[in-house]
Amino acid sequence: MSNYKPNESKREEFRRYLERSGVLDALTKVLVSLYEEPEKPDDALEYIKKHLGGTSGLTTETENLEKKLQDVEAENRELKTKLEKLNIADEE
Fold this sequence. Notes:
Blueprint (H helix, E strand, L loop, with lengths): L3 H17 L2 H14 L7 H9 L1 H38 L1
Helix pairs in contact: 2-3
InterPro entries: AMY1 (IPR026060)
Protein name: c-Myc-binding protein
Keywords: Coiled coil, Nucleus
């Protein structure tokens, strides 16, 4: 019975951590929205991932846009170099 209090204390500490970090609130909101769905999705876990992972979707989109920007910047450098070569050739 003496081991019960430390475990309970760790649980309580972890619960406070989840509460402070907003995890409990976010999970509650997602579960409530799932509960209020008139037609329940076939895959509840996927629903939770989609609605909870909103920021991860944005992270993926940001990464894709950053990659696209790098590609466009590289293409822009290439085109500038070609244009400079054409201008030099026209001057000669």
